[in-house]
Amino acid sequence: MIGLTGALLPVVSFLGRLPTATIQMGSVLLVAETSGSLGTGGAVGCALALGQVAMGPYLGRLADRRGQRRVVLGFALLNALLITAFTLAALYGLPTPALIALAALAGASQPGIGPLARARIVALARARGADGRLVNAAFSLEGTMDELSFVLGPALVGLAAVAGHPAYAFAVAVVLVAVCGTAFALHPSAREVPLHARETGTATRPARMPSSVHLVRAGLVLLGILLGACGAGITALTRELGHDGQAGLVYAAMGVMSAVVGLSMAALPERFGLALRWRIATAAAALLSLPLIWTGSMPLLYAVVTVFGAIYAPNLITGFGLTERAVPKERLSEGMTFAVSAFVGGQAVTLAVAGRLAEEYGAHVAFALGSAAAAGAFLVSLAVREPRADPAPEPDLKQAAAAP
Predict the structure, then answer these.
(1) Of 136, 250, 343, 369, which is the most buried if we count CB atoms within 10 A?
(2) Which pLDDT does position 278 carry in this prediction?
């Protein structure tokens, strides 16, 4: 992987995606701190996530047609400005509608470095004739970096809150997205991702997405619901047990285990097909989430969540792998950003809904909702078929006829 991309690209892509996790959780804490209302903070955080969900697929399509360099460079700088504007608005106590609007814009302007890094590395690997083993290693590394970012992002917010104010974390996020986003955009590998805006002198119609892509997206939505419900349940249960401050540590235990197992996914043999992997991973998610419903103590919560974390990265890595195999190559960036948007959208909406359910009926209701979503993801996986590793390109009949 390092030989393919160079040592700098994984570093800047990891640091460049860290602001996404930081401002997602940080927006809730920042607004709750400045407004005194956790409900307002939740609404603002949901608006930020939905902004990312709405804009993500369009950003990926734009990168496919105009190139990652220009798109990421423009969005990284715009995102830095909008995060700054949102932070100042929260600090100066602007009305809730203004905060929601700025949060949605900050979410929509995120440069999507995570999914675009996946698309870039896959394009580099395929251009050099790499086999599926290297592509699988790429998804394992990317999945691990995602998991670590979602552990370190909230941790950064927590440290900032302890140091004085959650706004300090937003200042770090602004610097990271501006500097590392720019470095990712200007990295030489950006030139090697092929453009697909035009194949001839006239614009071509984009290839249709196969039905298997939509099935995978549905499965990712359900996995997002699972994580959102578990997040709401963990927050509610730690509060019920009188350990509110340990919710972040419980998330970290789950995230670290997920990252370790995700990295080890690269060791799986290629003959262990993606469709079979996803069925096993979703079935394991449904089974291992059930003990959460009956968990009633902090030691047991740590144990159950740590075991449960072992199956999360395999689900996401396999979902992204199925997406990469199934989408037309000229829509790879769009396919990756849409997959991330499906997962984040399911998580964001469920976090708000399951949070209310947990407050009214208890944490076990939120955990039960997550288990039901995992069972639904398993049913979806049964309908997914193994896509071809290298779809054959359609022959150009005019070019063939003109060839000597």
Answers:
(1) 343
(2) 92
| 313: enclosing H helix or E strand | helix 312-326
For residue 209, what are the CA distances in angstroms to 117, 212, 277, 331, 404? 21, 8, 22, 9, 34
Residue in 15, 48, 25, 10 with CA at minimum distance from that of residue 176: 15
Instruction: Please list the residue range(s) of the chain that carry CATH number 1.20.1250.20.
Output: 9-194, 208-388
- With a CB cutoff of 8 Å and minimum separation 6, the contacts of 376 are 222
With beta carbons less than 8 A apart as the criterion, state whether 339 and 146 touch: no
Decide: 239 and 355 in contact? Cβ < 8 Å: no
* Phi, psi angle pair for 135, to nearest 5°: -65, -40
**pLDDT, tens digit (0-9, with 9 covering 90-100), for 147-199:** 778 767 777 776 777 777 888 889 999 999 999 999 999 988 887 666 654 43
Place of tokens 């995120």: 110
Distance of alpha carbon 91 from alpha carbon 168, whole angstroms? 11
* Structure tokens, 219: 């499965």
Domain spanning 9-194 has what CATH number?
Answer: 1.20.1250.20
Q: Is the pTM of this model over 0.90?
A: no
Which uninterrupted H or E stretch holds 135? Answer: helix 132-163
According to CATH, the superfamily of the domain at 208-388 is MFS general substrate transporter like domains (1.20.1250.20)
Contacts of 340 (CB under 8 A, 6+ apart): 56, 112, 114, 115
Pick the more confident residue, 373 or 192.
373
Name all contacts of 278-282 with Cβ < 8 Å and 24+ positions apart. 278/219, 278/315, 278/318, 278/319, 278/322, 278/381, 278/384, 279/378, 279/381, 279/382, 281/311, 281/314, 281/315, 281/318, 282/219, 282/223, 282/315, 282/374, 282/377, 282/378, 282/380, 282/381
